[in-house]
Amino acid sequence: MATRRRGVGVGAVQQKKDLQAKFQAKGSELASEQLNQFSQELAIFQTKLEEFAHKHRDEIRRNSHFRRHFQDMCASVGVDPLACKLTELLLRTNN
Q1: Which positions ≥6 away from 39 have C-beta within 8 Å?
Q2: Does residue 8 lie in a domain region?
């Protein structure tokens, strides 16, 4: 007696489509969660970077070597210190 192999036919095609749709939905969900988490981490980092710049603003202004390292660090993580609140902190003069 010949045995019939499963996995062929209309039912198998539909199961495969359903499985692919589930994987697609789960992948989208995970990507969304990761993007949300990354956005939160970036916001925290920017806040901490601004706090650091405020705390060390005199050193950043005075020491060109320190300022260069600070700018390099900002560039390595994709933060432009000239395009955010850091500019205000770094360039503000004490009156």
Answers
A1: none
A2: no
Residue 36 lies in a domain: yes
Count structural domains, the chain.
1
Asked if residue 84 belongs to a domain, the reply is yes
Task: With a cut of 70, list the residues of the chain below it in pLDDT.
Answer: 1-7, 81-95
Percentage of the chain modeled with pLDDT above 70: 77
Encode pLDDT of 41-56 as tens digits: 988 888 888 888 888 8
| Locus of tokens 């990354």 | 38
**Residue 50 carries which side chain, given as an amino acid letter?**
E
Q: Is residue 3 part of a domain?
A: no
Question: In 3-state terms, what secondary structure has residue 7?
Answer: coil
94 closest CA partner among 57, 64, 48, 39? 57
